[in-house]
Write a structure and sequence with these properties.
Blueprint: E1 3-9, E2 14-20, E3 25-29, H1 36-49, E4 52-57, H2 63-66, H3 69-76, E5 80-82, H4 87-91, H5 93-99, E6 112-113, E7 119-122, E8 125-131, E9 140-144, E10 149-153, E11 156-157, E12 160-161, H6 171-182, E13 190-193, E14 199-200, H7 201-207
Parallel strand pairs: 3-4, 4-5, 5-6, 10-13
Antiparallel strand pairs: 1-2, 2-3, 7-8, 8-9, 9-10, 11-12, 13-14
């Protein structure tokens, strides 16, 4: 049984997810911790629960989702896994951070490239990698078929969709990713987005203005 812990970090109010299971192993998805108190909160939580952090996963590599990568790699010596399609965003993270007023420590390189139909395995948990470009060229979603949840990053939100006006963004590609890759996962699947509250595929089909045809 997995447990999903949500932390809201940095001025962009980005959702960082820590997912653990009964083995005590865990992963962190999109570590956006930027301020010292945010970093301390994450480490204290790991220590308090005696979790073993095994890897960092990035759904995509926009700067607000990778602010904590360097910090966690330094402290835990763990790999970073993401899509090769977003590698250019890591390469340019320091400059991108300046545009938004962030002093960004250069994030470490991607250790392992994720691509559909890949899998992420930790403890007794398996997440399927789904390619969902559009918000960024290498954006991925992470689907737990057994427990019916999907981490969508900045692809699908409660009542909205990801922006497409950033480098590499494309509205038509994003909409195709949502309609052909995420919605077919099933109405009962819970959606954990990169910003804002969780939702469900059923709710978004019925109420999301971008998906009501």
């Amino acid at each position: 049984m997995t447990t999903i812990h949500t932390f809201i970090f940095n001025p962009f109010q980005e959702n960082t997810y820590l997912i653990a299971d009964e083995t005590g192993e865990c992963i962190i998805i999109d570590p956006g911790c930027y301020f010292d108190e945010e970093k301390s909160a994450l480490i204290d939580f790991l220590k308090k629960n005696e979790y073993k952090l095994t890897k960092i996963i990035n759904t995509h590599c926009h700067v607000d989702h990778i602010l904590g990568n360097a910090f966690l790699v330094k402290n835990y010596n763990i790999p970073v896994e993401a899509s090769k399609g977003d590698e250019f965003l890591i390469d340019n993270a320091v400059e991108h951070g300046k545009l938004f007023g962030f002093e960004v420590e250069q994030p470490p390189c991607i250790t392992h490239y994720l691509e559909e139909p890949g899998e992420i395995i930790f403890g007794n948990t398996l997440l399927k990698v789904i390619n969902v470009p559009g918000h960024s060229p290498g954006h991925i979603a992470l689907f737990c078929e057994k427990e019916k949840f999907v981490i969508t990053g900045d692809t699908l939100f409660s009542g909205s969709i990801g922006r497409t006006d950033l480098p590499g963004g494309n509205y038509d590609i994003l909409m195709d990713s949502i309609t052909s890759k995420i919605l077919p996962l099933g109405d009962d699947v819970i959606v954990y987005p990169g910003h804002g509250p969780s939702t469900s595929i059923e709710k978004e089909k019925k109420t999301n203005p971008f998906l009501m045809y």
